[in-house]
Design a protein that fits this description.
Layout (H helix, E strand, L loop, with lengths): L5 E5 L5 H16 L4 E3 L20 E4 L4 H9 L4 E3 L11 E4 L1 H13 L5 E5 L5 H16 L4 E3 L12 H14 L4 E5 L2 H13 L8 E6 L3 H6 L5 E4 L2 H16 L8 E4 L3 E3 L12 H13 L6 H7 L4 H12 L3 H19 L4 H7 L5 H12 L3 H10 L2
Parallel strand pairs: 1-2, 1-3, 3-4, 5-11, 6-7, 6-8, 8-9, 9-10
Antiparallel strand pairs: 10-12
Length: 386
């Protein structure tokens, strides 16, 4: 009976990106032939443990984040594939997300929303952040605009204390021209920006729209407001790495050039769900609607929040938003209804109460008018696709 190849995975499981890589490796194994997997407890950038020096396995897939891991993996003498952007083992095949394509998607997403001002917030300790910054800045320049770059602390190698970083981010956001569309190098940095905006009372997305990268669903949906994010194809990245390693184990020659995997798209959430608005009164009205739509407000309540007549409000709303104030209120309510139908087991009566509908019958009619199906049908369909 043929012995299974013994494969070590030096990939952490503490973040969404790395877990996606592991799912891709798992998919390859399930579709082809079984491997004997060794997945040690491993943090991002952890130094290799002693077992690797005397390990006699058949292959390694690793996120090589420091020189010691690079040295240990190369010295092991077994076939190995690198899935880190640090590129510390250039002799190894390398599978990575396509940062040019990621930056291009984020730039297009923000430009489509009509912004005149753009910015990038990165972390120059990482290659992927620097590459995304360069590509995003190039895309914005090609679109005819200027991109403001978050200034990095010179020579830093370690994480800056949050209090210090928060102060620097606050000062940067305050001085940016607004409204502004910002690409953050990844979701964690984007969440930090959202926290800072909330602290200094800068409205998102009305004054600052923010998009991250990785689409970490827990992180994005715990953010306030929920964070839009580019979706990297991490499953395919892990799958391709496993396929390359399999070929190497079989004795085939594999090029050490980079194998780039394009992103899947963008998950749009509230942090960029807006058109850039130069009209302060309409921007204020939109902000009011987003904050109170599910409290049962109507257009008359909106008029009390801005010094405009109903006719002027309706006209300017159509010009900047493409919808009437009433349609915007209903859109936000029904988006919240969909979220509650998908993520909870609340009854229709309870959902109606939480989203500003006086009666579940009215909710049912409004929902079917927008989607073509009833709330019950929508909930069943969502459960079937999980």
């Amino acid at each position: 009976m043929k012995q299974r190849p013994s494969i070590a995975l030096l990939i952490e499981s503490s973040n969404s990106y790395a877990r996606g890589l592991l799912r891709g490796v798992m998919s390859y194994i399930h579709e082809h032939h079984p491997w004997s997997i060794y997945l040690p407890e491993h943090g991002r950038g952890s130094v290799p443990v002693n077992w690797l020096n005397s390990w006699h396995g058949d292959g390694i897939i690793a996120r090589i984040e420091n020189e010691k891991i690079a040295e240990a993996v190369v010295n092991s003498g077994v076939p190995a594939v690198d899935v880190s952007a640090a590129r510390l083992a250039p002799s190894l095949p390398w599978v990575e997300t396509d940062d040019r394509a990621i930056a291009s998607l984020a730039a297009q997403h923000l430009v489509e929303r009509g912004f005149q001002h753009y910015a990038f917030c990165g972390d120059d300790r990482f290659n992927w952040s620097r590459w995304r910054e360069d590509h995003f800045q190039s895309c914005i320049k090609d679109a005819g605009f200027t991109c403001h770059i978050y200034p990095q602390a010179k020579g830093r190698k370690k994480t800056i204390p949050w209090e210090q970083e928060q102060k620097r981010l606050s000062e940067w956001i305050r001085q940016l021209p607004k409204p502004v569309g910002i690409m953050a190098c990844y979701d964690i940095k984007a969440q930090q920006l959202l926290d800072v905006c909330r602290t200094i009372n800068v409205s998102v997305p009305e004054e600052v729209a923010i998009i991250g990268v990785d689409n970490d669903e827990i992180l994005c949906n715990l953010s306030e407001p929920p964070l839009s994010s580019v979706i990297p194809n991490t499953r395919l990245t892990g799958y391709e790495a496993a396929a390359l390693l399999d070929r190497m184990i079989a004795g085939q020659t594999v090029s050490s050039e980079c194998h780039l995997i394009k992103p899947l798209g963008i998950e749009t959430r509230q942090s960029t769900d807006i058109q850039a608005i130069d009209d302060k009164f309409i921007s204020d009205a939109v902000c009011f609607i987003r904050q109170y739509a599910c409290d049962g407000i109507n257009v008359q309540d909106v008029l009390k929040s801005v010094p405009l007549s109903r006719r002027v409000l309706e006209s300017r709303f159509q010009k900047f938003i493409g919808r009437s104030p009433h349609e915007e209120i209903m859109r936000i309510r029904l988006d919240r209804v969909k979220q509650l139908l998908e993520e909870t087991d609340l009854s229709l009566i309870e959902i109606a109460e939480r989203t500003g509908f006086r009666h579940p019958e009215y909710l049912n009619v409004a929902f079917k008018k927008q989607t073509g199906i009833t709330p019950g049908t929508f909930r069943r369909e969502q459960k079937q696709t999980r």
